[in-house]
Amino acid sequence: MASSTEEVAAKSISPYGIARSTISEQPLSAEELRKTDAYFRASMYLCLGMLYLRKNPLLTTPLTTSDLKARLLGHWGSDAGQSFTWIHFNRLIKKYDLNALFISGPGHGAPAVLSNSYLEGVYSEVYPDITRNEEGMRRFFRQFSFPGGIGSHCTPETPGSVHEGGELGYSISHAFGTVFDNPDLISLTVVGDGEAETGPLATSWHSTKFLNPITDGAVLPVLHLNGYKINNPTILARISHRELEALFVGYGWTPYFVEGSDLESMHQAMASTLEHCVMEIQKYQKQARDSGKAFRPFWPMIILRSPKGWTAPRKVDGKLLEGYWRAHQIPIPDVATNPAHLKVLEDWMKSYKPEEIFDKEGQLIKELAELSPEGTARMSANPVGNGGVLRKALNIPDFRKYALLKIEPGVSLLPSMSNMALFLKDVVAQNMTNFRVFGPDETESNKLGGIYGAGKKVWMGEYFEEDEDGGNLAFEGRVMEMLSEHTCEGWLEGYLLSGRHGLLNSYEPFIHVIDSMVNQHCKWIEKCLEVSWREKVSSLNILLTATVWRQDHNGFTHQDPGFLDVVANKSPDIVRIYLPPDGNCLLSVTDHCLKSVNYVNVIVADKQDHIQFLDMEAAIEHCSKGVGIWDFASTDQGSEPDVVMASCGDVPTHESLAATALLREHIPSLRIRFVNVVDLFKLIAEVDHPHGMSDAQYTSIFTSDKPIIFNFHSYPFLVHRLTYKRPGQTNIHVRGYNEKGNIDTPLELAIRNKTDRYSLAMDVIDRVPGLKVKEAGVRELLLNEQTRMKNYAFEEGIDPQEIRDWTWPSEKSA
Amino acid sequence: MASSTEEVAAKSISPYGIARSTISEQPLSAEELRKTDAYFRASMYLCLGMLYLRKNPLLTTPLTTSDLKARLLGHWGSDAGQSFTWIHFNRLIKKYDLNALFISGPGHGAPAVLSNSYLEGVYSEVYPDITRNEEGMRRFFRQFSFPGGIGSHCTPETPGSVHEGGELGYSISHAFGTVFDNPDLISLTVVGDGEAETGPLATSWHSTKFLNPITDGAVLPVLHLNGYKINNPTILARISHRELEALFVGYGWTPYFVEGSDLESMHQAMASTLEHCVMEIQKYQKQARDSGKAFRPFWPMIILRSPKGWTAPRKVDGKLLEGYWRAHQIPIPDVATNPAHLKVLEDWMKSYKPEEIFDKEGQLIKELAELSPEGTARMSANPVGNGGVLRKALNIPDFRKYALLKIEPGVSLLPSMSNMALFLKDVVAQNMTNFRVFGPDETESNKLGGIYGAGKKVWMGEYFEEDEDGGNLAFEGRVMEMLSEHTCEGWLEGYLLSGRHGLLNSYEPFIHVIDSMVNQHCKWIEKCLEVSWREKVSSLNILLTATVWRQDHNGFTHQDPGFLDVVANKSPDIVRIYLPPDGNCLLSVTDHCLKSVNYVNVIVADKQDHIQFLDMEAAIEHCSKGVGIWDFASTDQGSEPDVVMASCGDVPTHESLAATALLREHIPSLRIRFVNVVDLFKLIAEVDHPHGMSDAQYTSIFTSDKPIIFNFHSYPFLVHRLTYKRPGQTNIHVRGYNEKGNIDTPLELAIRNKTDRYSLAMDVIDRVPGLKVKEAGVRELLLNEQTRMKNYAFEEGIDPQEIRDWTWPSEKSA
Fold first, then answer.
1. Which residues of A touch B320 (CB under 8 A)?
2. Residue B104 belongs to what H/E stretch?
3. pLDDT tens for each residue of A466-491
4. What keywords tag this UniProt record (chains A, B) (predicted)?
5. Which of A194, A259, A233, A235 is CA-nearest to residue A9?
6. Which chain A positions have a beta carbon within 8 Å of B242's beta carbon?
């Protein structure tokens, strides 16, 4: 491969002509070929019908404008290629008794998936009003991209779908998620060449370095070189064959090409190539499973180059349609106003010969209906596509066993996160094929390395001798680490949607990398609630650590707690946010999240050694309530407080408590109520979130008229938006991260954002009526002390010991 | 390349040993080799010093714990490879008089960049207190990763840096951004093999399909196969040579390998290979420029495989250090408490022979200082690295020329966006080497295709005959379209940071894909404000269209206006959000944004034909104020209103106005004040944002005691968080997107979220004291009408005409 001899990129090739393919056998008999093509025509006819018709589905009378939908919506471009792939895989499912799932990357090509689901009968089983006759077909057409109907992506309403594809880029990572620990499954995954340009998709090809041929199934990608996006050519369709082949060899695959437009030869090429790929997959799996030795083969994949909008007219009025970007959406948009174009449409639809493929009642004729597999072997009926039905509850050890013991509130200094790793280790150990931990190269850094004791990191790349020295790599691991939040998240989503359990851990600042993926997952599971046959899947659990308040040393780029704002915009039916203040609360919250279904749970916790507040009993009670008054830190017993010190988040709680101690010392007469919030949505009204409190509950904790000094983990605005309706909301004074940071110590970072103990104590003095004048001396003392500490930190490069090792004055010392 | 003969992935190779390289010449004389190695040792010495020392920088006395920083922070892992690359490029800059910029992908390797900047004298020129002597070196060491000092990434404080790298994945797209329209520039870009696993980086290699060898410069990537991330091996270091080479050929590059650890042979290999690459670049550029024919060569790149933490001890206490992940951060962390390790460190530092490379005063000896280029030829002094100094103001036509004319407020129906395209077309035409438009395959869909009249889409992939049929592709285009928001955004950032201008257009829902990139850019430009020598750069302008309210047909996945929440969390010094209600306001706002510096401007506007409200005069006045009362729609002239109808966003304004018309019709006595907000940050207090209003200004518009029915484009919470402090905030009733959507018509989508005219009018009745009882009949009538319209939409699949084509009752018809 001496590249210097070929300096200028060579030519690509046309999608037109007789099939050109790597495998050139002719596996289909003339009869099989005839039927396969008829089945394909049936699917294409249905796709077009979905785009255009509200009536007259079989075209039993001449097509008129009154048969058309008033608003034409939907996508034609990738339908043919996707349906072509589906239909040819049907033959192999039957021949080899395969367990297969179809993942549609170019999500806008839902008609391909829907038409096949309808043809194989699943659609009518799932939606009994969409019958397999003329009236059912009419309804099937009408509902598509129609208000109250279904979308033009593979939405949750689509049988067999775990991947909507509205936002592009995740088909391959989702597919791998479905096959991990599913050794018999093949996920046939069509990847659009538009989608293939996205970053998340481009790196997800490397997923093969994490797939074990013994314990996992296989992904069979079909890269669909359709040639065009909405208005542009695609990159991969406009590079040389040499580059294209090299790229996928480089990604670790064996690419097989199927290219052309001639139907007869394309059918033979696709049939033989798909079959060859299935044989390859089974060969590698057998080799590994028989020998017990896992290895990483160059897994097969297909590059299918066919015209965009294949089987449409090549030109309309002299303008290119098939094989061009104009075929992307509605291929002929003006049929309602242009009678000539209406005729073009009618002729086109009739070219599929509906009368030969559907009987008078509108049912697919028997000899074609027999081509599809049966029962759950039909790809649209595979239970993996409705993973909740396969979901088995986790076998979770009692989290109380892992309690941090002998807690002296505010005094004990213990590692919350590495303790939690012990719990997670046993969750892994007790669910060795049902639970995985995902993270972008940060699991050890996040103090969760203890998990490796039960399941190491999956690694199918090459091994070096040095890996023996603490590498924690294994062919059969349970922790998935790749430096791509996108791929980790995609794997986890695929793993959950196919009925399993998992947890993603990440540095807090960089979880924004997958804002949009989490958004889309929220939307998916919310919409599933409206689809009666969808069983609930395990929650998506996101553990955020290396949080903003301990990113002082990494600086400004590593300080962003705003993911909570993104999540809080999603439906209250779906999202949960927990900020456990200490180790036992972290255990309790995590246990709760692991057992839950259909949520996106976000847990935010510091990974460093941390001051502890609650023993396990108290932690469970506190977490069950979600918010509570901490008596040990309060001085308002039996009376109204002068001020409420509230906190949410472990580091902010530490500082709030320290501020409370300062006030107790300097203003002993002040009645302070100390409140901690674990469950963020407790703050919101009960009508706005299932976890919300009533105003009565809220005021019984926060009062309706006392100043509240609220120290918050994230941007302070989030608390305001949750509480803006509350009685006494004007008394809430929220401190949090205000986008002020640089290379700091923790103290200096806190001071910049006014979340440090001194600032908080001064806030109290400023806010409690009368105190500012009366306690001006204390305020000055606090300010001086703050300055002294800050100067020390500035000089030494570390926080002073009395800040770092501060604990609540215990009874003895008090 | 018959892959079937080689089915199982072959072995990778070790980073150790004598250099193995594609180019095996020996360009360095013994003398040059000796000096180059000494310079490299100088750099390595400085890197280690930064990590460890606060005193005794030249180790003139034995190393003691008092010389150490109290808290050891920073990264060693990639320093050697990056510095090695820098130093060898210095030779070529001098030899060939190159204009070169260095981009450090593994951002955590800032010591490599900082040490070279210090060695070539730039650091002391920029920061005069960091002198080139012992005391300056001491300060240089101490400030690193030290409070009040500088970070361990290439932060804005780093001379010559346009790429911080705290969040990984953008080095290549940033690099391409710097060389577009910079034909003489070579951006030497080190890509970490950790970074290379991210999605954004993985697809950005395809940027070559958008680089014109005549009008653009070149990117020379050095993929640094360091072998390890924080705790894991990297994928690219653990695949076979065949895969690695194929991958980059597939991406369209010519990879040259430099692999090994032996310094002498590695110096020769790197010197010869870098030189060969520069020759290749110049050859291709000459060929294209001499012939006037652009083409896409297989541009050269280097794969540098060297041990992680190269030149560190291979083992410490029997545990691997050099060549393993333990070398990632501080290589020996316990030197303060382990005297033996302190000695290891001292011996290691002395192995670089500081006494041979620095003179007694601590200055780099003359024969080494002469190795670096001079003046702005030094990579850390290249003005491109401080693009603001190169920035020329745009030559912008008067936007008033493009005004939509003869506006009858609330009646004229005109295309705001395609009209704006005419303005942008002329901006392109008048700034043909200084302004580009970026978008992920959506420019035409976003009705901005008019821009192609001045500058087509850049395309260096292959051309097909069919491109003649409206393809709008060109070698020398001005619009950049790749289906990767990450790459488009990265290119634009690089283009701006190197002193040019641009605009990104995107569908609103999928802008979340680059949340984290925009976050990081905000942080970069905010921090630049604190760096006195940084000149301001053009603003990052993001135009969002295909907005939530017109994504009814695409469904739930395409409905997410939450990007505004992400942006609103950033510093008020940086972020601006505009929601122009109509076409003339869109022009005015865009003109303002294009002229601004150092902001992230977000503009949200509908792309469809839209009802117009203001003629150009009025639009300019309205946009200058940012918020205003619209008299034509108000009925409270000269008196206090009963209710304030407020709106923000074009579609919401349309519905608010329609609600106002309904109320005028049915409750003519009601005094309504109609308020529109263009500049979102007007809502916030003046102390919290430079655009904020005083409470007096606010209440003069919104009143302090009247109900406000606020129809908002995005999630309603955002308005609450901006106004929670305002007098009368409890009277603000905000409607907006509430995460309710499916396949709908626009009307049905609005009804689901209660932002439609009927819901808003009923809100008024419910909120104005006394009205609910008094106007119960009107309320019922509105409800019935809403139901009737909804049913029509449901039945027909389109909104009824009276909704779609609704306009404000004009004087004549009223």
1. 466, 469
2. strand B99-104
3. 999 999 999 999 999 999 999 999 99
4. Lyase, Thiamine pyrophosphate
5. A235
6. 249
